Amino acid sequence: MIVRARRVVLPDGERPAAVHVTGGRITAVTGFDDVTGGDEVTTLADDEVLLPGLVDSHVHVNEPGRTEWEGFASATRAAAAGGITTVVDMPLNSIPPTTTLDGLAAKRSVAAGQVSVDVAFWGGAVPGNTGELRPMLDAGVVGFKCFLLDSGVPEFPPLDDAGLREVLTELAAVDGLLIAHCEDEATIEAAPDPDGRSYAGFLASRPPAAEETAIARLLAAAADTGARVHVVHLADAGALPLLRRARADGVRVTVETCPHYLTFAADEVPDGDTAYKCCPPIREAAHREALWQALADGDVDLVVSDHSPCTPELKRLDVGDFGLAWGGIAGLQVTLPAVWTGARARGLGLGRVVELMSAAPAALAGLPAKGGIAVGKDADLVAFAPDAVATVGRLEHRNPVTPYTGRELTGVVRRVWLRGGPVDGAPRGRLLDRGA
Ligand SMILES: [Zn+2]
């Protein structure tokens, strides 16, 4: 079959093209008119652009164990509806966490047969599981996540500096990747406690210095061990010079930010609206604008959702207390329109957005068949209407709480193909291993 469009976002730019697919793989990318009478051709509408399926390397599915927060069926349905054809599941908030081979097996067996898009897995690095890391890598995890402060769940404790170095030494030997939640416990303890319904009070409780201190700890350990590291969900633009300097010094570090840090700003968050609570917090507009500049300049490598849902009860919307509420923003389904809305307003092109949301996360996770429209890759494709406008209503993920509700966003996902087949709610997704 062939999918063609007047605008196709290819790795080397945008042009009219026909994407030829056999057995779920892209076999040729030709001129728009290079089709023959016998081909089964789908031609996109004039207002649609053909994009590669997005890769979201930061999704908390929470199944098994906290499936009432989010499960594989609902999370991957939401992903598919949003043009995300590959998700990489985070190792914590499920029970068991993915910190052992057995935990990975539990994840895989519960995910199998119920995913609408392809799914890969992060392992977790916690105190005492260094011996599990290589077996989990061999079993297909794409790398490991760690926390540098309390994660919020007791079964996923943080690494101290000695533990961090032990893990990085182990991973450096096999070129494994460690991704880290970078906030510093001591800095947060020294800051004021969150103050009930006040968003300013919550923001003050997790200052930028907490991110900068933890990032500096990670960079120092990476420099000493030579390991590859990645900073998840950067909210603090003040950390960018640190990261730039480390890269200039040869430290192997990449960094992501998330749609909520690019869309919202602290002074727009209503007091008591804990749908906006996440850690690190949504900061002032100056951080948001500096993060956009960093995306344009290449100082931030990728944008992924950090879809981190919980039950509405745990969000404590009844009392609106930012200290009591679970931290995490849900909404992977609107990642693309949210980022595109902001990108367009700032003159950042669709090609750069696709790099940030498809090619770069696929490269981070080591999934060479994903992340672009190119010969040999999986035919994961999205028909996207970049000028269409829609208001965010009920989303497909399990618990509907999200700060995006009611927001008008530009860009609508019209159709999605996974390995050449239409995404229609059937569980056609596969479980992926690193390197697949
Ligand atoms: Zn997360």
- Briefly note the structural class of the backbone: alpha/beta
- CATH architectural designation: Alpha-Beta Barrel
Rg computed from alpha carbons, rounded to a whole number of angstroms: 21 Å
CATH class: Alpha Beta
Low-confidence parts, pLDDT < 50 over ≥5 residues?
none
- Order of the strands making up the biggest sheet: 9-10-11-12-13-14
**Beta strand %:** 15-25%
Distance between the termini: 23 Å
Number of helices: 12
When the domains are counted, the total is 1
* Shape, principal axes of CA atoms: globular
What is the CATH superfamily classification?
Answer: Metal-dependent hydrolases
> Mean pLDDT, nearest integer?
96
Q: Major sheet: size, sense and barrel closure?
A: 6 strands, parallel
Are any ligands bound, and if so which? zinc ion
Q: Quote the CATH topology.
A: TIM Barrel
Number of strands: 17
Order of SSEs: EEEEEEHEHEEHEHEHHHEHEHHEHHEEE
Q: Considering DSSP H and I runs of 4 or more, what fraction of the residues is helical?
A: 25-40%
Question: What is this structure's SSE topology?
Answer:
Blueprint: E1 2-10, E2 13-22, E3 25-30, E4 41-43, E5 49-52, E6 54-59, H1 72-81, E7 84-89, H2 101-111, E8 118-121, E9 123-124, H3 130-138, E10 144-147, H4 161-172, E11 177-181, H5 185-190, H6 199-205, H7 208-225, E12 228-231, H8 240-248, E13 253-257, H9 259-263, H10 285-297, E14 302-303, H11 335-345, H12 350-365, E15 381-391, E16 408-418, E17 421-422
Parallel strand pairs: 1-4, 6-7, 7-8, 9-10, 10-11, 11-12, 12-13, 13-14
Antiparallel strand pairs: 1-2, 2-3, 5-15, 15-16, 16-17
Helix pairs in contact: 4-7
Bound molecules: zinc ion.
Zinc ion is lined by residues 58, 60, 90, 306, 308.
